[in-house]
Amino acid sequence: MIADLLTSTEEDELSASLRGLLAARCPSTRVLAMYDGDSSLAGELWPALGIDMGLAGLLVPEQHGGAGASARDAAIVLEELGRSLAPVPFLTSSVMAVAALQAAQAADSLRQIAGGSLTCALAVPLGTCVTTFAPTATLDDDGLVHGRIGRVAGTEGSGLLLVPASDPSGGLVLALVDTAAAACEPLASLDMSRPLADLRFAGSPAIVVTQGDSAADAIRAALLLGAALLASEQVGIAQWCLDTTVGYLLERRQFGRLIGSYQAVKHRAADLFIEVETARAVARYAAAAWADGSEDRFVASAVAQAYCSDVAVHAAQECVQLHGGIGFTWEHPAHLYLKRAKADQVALGTPGDHRAILAGLIDLSM
Amino acid sequence: MRDPDDITKRLIEMLSRFLLEHDPALTDRVTFLRARFAAGLAEVHYPLGDGGLGLPRGYQTIVEGAFEQAGAPNNAPELNVIGLGMAAPTIIAYGTPEQRARFLPGLWTGEDIWCQLFSEPGAGSDLAGLSTRAVPEGDEWVVTGQKVWTSVAHVARWGILLARTDPDVPKHQGLSFFICDMTAPGVEVRPLRQLTGDSEFNEVFFTQARIPDSDRLGDVGSGWDVARATLMNERMAIGGNVPPRESGMVGAVARTWREHPERHRPDLHERLLRLWVDAEAARIASARLQQKLAAGQPGPEGSAGKLVFARLAQELSSLEVELLGDEGLLYDQWSPSGNDAFDFTGRGAAFRYLRARGNSIEGGTSEVLRNVVAERVLRLPPEDRPDTTVAWKDLPK
Ligand SMILES: Cc1cc2nc3c(=O)[nH]c(=O)nc-3n(C[C@H](O)[C@H](O)[C@H](O)COP(=O)(O)OP(=O)(O)OC[C@H]3O[C@@H](n4cnc5c(N)ncnc54)[C@H](O)[C@@H]3O)c2cc1C
């Protein structure tokens, strides 16, 4: 039987309150300012969301000071964060780092994250998925980390980095490094609402939280849950694009008619609606599969990424196109969604990566 | 018909003589370019006396080849895309001999940059609905209104302007076409930033700007016919040239593929090869279209080439970002680059991805171009429109 894919009253309340808060506190003009170097929005939003609303520790078990909520709730949150492009480290810290730390049973760090005193980033390149993960940092005999990890998300304003590294015997370790002990070089990238940084470690002190197979499992847990839930962010992006586009089609006139009255345009909107609704079902299913610990969660994650990534990009591209010249401007927010959607398509594996992962899971490999 | 071999021979003779008389190494750039124009070696398909020889476009490659080989300076066409691609063919087709002599040399040499003052906030796809007014006063026109998305207006010396001269007739009949001095009082240019971070285009405000009647192109009230010729040429300029195999966007992606064996995946490979074939097919199709056109004016068929060009540019650049993974997300700078050349394939993959989104909007959106192909090439009936028979002033605004 397929899990319940509808939302409960409590879940609806969560999204409504988040949507209200983000509408007020995260206007697109502030997101736009991040492209011109003003990232003050990130620092203002996170205390409200992470601490006041308790999102920092949403997935942290209650015994470690969190809310002990499920992946379903995280999916609701991510859909709203996608809709508003809120530049907060929820996916990177509260979902991915928490998943890894929980697998590694790092109770202290979980407690710190749940309390909101710091955020943590898993130090892997943004595009990493389970099949492409390869550690590039090393841990020496004195417990110091060396090396470079490029294009990592969620490091800005974080307190901790969760660094996969090779130990002197070539084994995998997962080590916590104080962000201040690494050189973080911020990068100009396509999506400035989720800034990336190059990390350099030149003998940074580290605490090993787990090693060997258990480290690999912790990283897998983070990458897989991240992929499953990123799909909900993509649904939020796509929904904003659809709503905004339909709004414009009902308002803009050319040749004496609403542009939404042209069949060529109308059909495109209809197709997009069907895609977005399907994406929502697929993303909810992936979240439910993780919440329920279902055996199907790996297939569900791969399907969610292979499907929802392209839907978000398509929706954003249609949004730009159907706005005509206005959609191509800096002032109109459509491009912010286009940029996030395109970056998300690459994040945690491209649709092609996830189709390849899926092929292995469903016995359809080449 | 003249014998093609004979034409080629005579053209090569002309070129050698010209190069003997104007040694590129000893002649200053502008002098050289002006002389080239005067000799009819600017664009061979321009008329005799207007920088050309009235030959089919195909012969131009011989000319360009000879000048390139001689190390001669060129007219930096990438800085004057609108001038060369749109204004020049319109002036050739509709200009008086005086207008052609006055505007074409400076346009072709690149001394004067040109812009296209067509689109308005209320009139993009529906260009003929525009409301910028030109009112006659003595032997001048007084222009008031606003244009938008005007590429390179901030560096342009001249603009081609479509304005309403008669609001009392249906919209297509009340337009006239002007050449606008961008330095004239009452013409104000304000930059607009676009999603790449750059400011290629602008808003242009007209407050009682004066244009002499001698700078009108075509008859009063026939502006729509003139503008249509401009637009056909624009679409040819964007999608109609015949690039070398694997150049432009497909060249960029192919290079990235070869440079990144570690990122090779079967699905990306399949998509790349499909697009490579599409790009090659489009290239050959535009060569055929150019042969069909020879020296004539482009028709609505050019719209098909522009449509395909936009789709390919978008799919290829999108693929390239996926091919590069997170490395493909790097962006050089968000602050305006200050580059005034049209640059579709420069900078990084992420820039190319963003810039290509404009290709299906600028010069007529892909939706509108499909209508053009369906209605003007295939002669399918248009959709019902309430706006073509009523006087413009009575249309709901
Ligand atoms: C980068 C760039 C550079 C430009 N440079 C110039 C320039 O130099 N000079 C200039 O004059 N203009 C320029 N333009 C403007 C361009 O020509 C217009 O943006 C374009 O014609 C669309 O008009 P619009 O923006 O008003 O969109 P609209 O016409 O409002 O269109 C909105 C959407 O509706 C669709 N649509 C409209 N009518 C129909 C229909 N009948 N059937 C189906 N779909 C329809 C469109 O395809 C589009 O998707 C530029 C635009 C861009 C993006």
What does this protein look like?
Chain A: GO terms for molecular function: acyl-CoA dehydrogenase activity; flavin adenine dinucleotide binding. Chain A: Belongs to the acyl-CoA dehydrogenase family. Chain A: Keywords: FAD, Flavoprotein, Oxidoreductase. The complex is a heterodimer of chains A (366) and B (397). By secondary structure, chain A is an alpha+beta fold. Chain A folds into three domains: 9-117, Orthogonal Bundle (Butyryl-Coa Dehydrogenase, subunit A, domain 1); 122-211, Butyryl-CoA Dehydrogenase, subunit A, domain 2; 216-361, Butyryl-CoA Dehydrogenase, subunit A, domain 3, CATH 1.20.140. Chain A is 52% helix and 15% strand. Chain A has eleven helices and nine strands. Chain A has helices at residues 9-25, 28-33, 40-52, 71-84, 90-103, 107-115, 213-249, 263-291, 297-322, 334-346, 351-361; strands spanning 120-122, 137-139, 144-153, 160-166, 172-178, 183-187, 196-211, 253-254, 257-258. Chain A has a five-stranded mixed beta barrel with strand order 2-3-7-5-4. Chain A is globular and about 75 Å long. The two termini of chain A are 30 Å apart. The mean pLDDT of chain A is 97. With 397 residues, chain B is α+β, with helices and mostly antiparallel strands. Chain B folds into three domains: 4-109, Acyl-CoA dehydrogenase/oxidase, N-terminal domain (Butyryl-Coa Dehydrogenase, subunit A, domain 1, Orthogonal Bundle); 114-235, Butyryl-CoA Dehydrogenase, subunit A, domain 2 (Beta Barrel); 239-377, Up-down Bundle (Butyryl-CoA Dehydrogenase, subunit A, domain 3), CATH 1.20.140.10. Helix content of chain B is 42%, strand content 14%. Chain B contains eleven helices and eight strands. Chain B has helices spanning 4-21, 29-38, 60-69, 81-94, 97-109, 223-239, 248-259, 266-293, 302-324, 349-357, 366-377, and strands at residues 114-117, 133-137, 140-151, 158-164, 175-181, 187-192, 201-212, 216-217. In chain B, the strands form two sheets. A four-stranded mixed sheet of chain B has the order 1-4-5-8. In chain B, a hairpin with a 2-residue loop joins strand 2 and strand 3 (140-151). In chain B, helix 4 (81-94) packs across helix 6 (223-239). Chain B is globular, with a radius of gyration of 22 Å. The model of chain B has no long low-confidence stretch (mean pLDDT 93). Chains A and B meet through helix 8, helix 9, helix 10 and helix 11 of A and helix 8, helix 9, helix 10 and helix 11 of B. The structure holds flavin-adenine dinucleotide.
